[in-house]
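In response to reviewer comment 3 from the previous cycle, which asked for concrete evidence that the modeling workflow produces usable outputs, we include below a single protein chain processed end to end. The sequence was submitted unchanged, and the resulting structure tokens are shown without manual editing.
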Amino acid sequence: MQALQSLFIYLIWPNPGNAYYSSSGIQVLLLASVLLIALSITLRLWRRSMRNPVMKKLSRSWPSAAFWFGVTGVVFVVSRVEGVGFLAMRLWWVVWGIVLALFIGVQVRLFRMRYYEKLPTEASDDPRDRYLPRRKK
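The workflow returned the following structure tokens.
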């Protein structure tokens, strides 16, 4: 019970402090957030040159989602370093990670359900085919 309480306090402490732009953890989070913003621009350009309409439709939300996840990451990092109380909580990073994982999971599932190719069928020259029952026109 004490461990759960201390974890809860650890996650929602309003200003955790001891965060500087020179610390490696902050630099990694900031770099990951900026890379998400750059990825959104790259995805937007990639979608413009895409010819496959199914893939283009499935990837419609990817650039905007990457952009907003990157922007919120940058806001969280800056808030943590600058000491903005409510936004500096570690809990927001947990929520951010859960939402990102859910978004990726939903997108993977939609992609696997809707992106398929029609395989060509082979025409058979079986002489028995003309005697088999067919659908009426």
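The mean pLDDT is 87. We consider this sufficient to address the reviewer's concern, and the full set will be provided in the supplementary archive.
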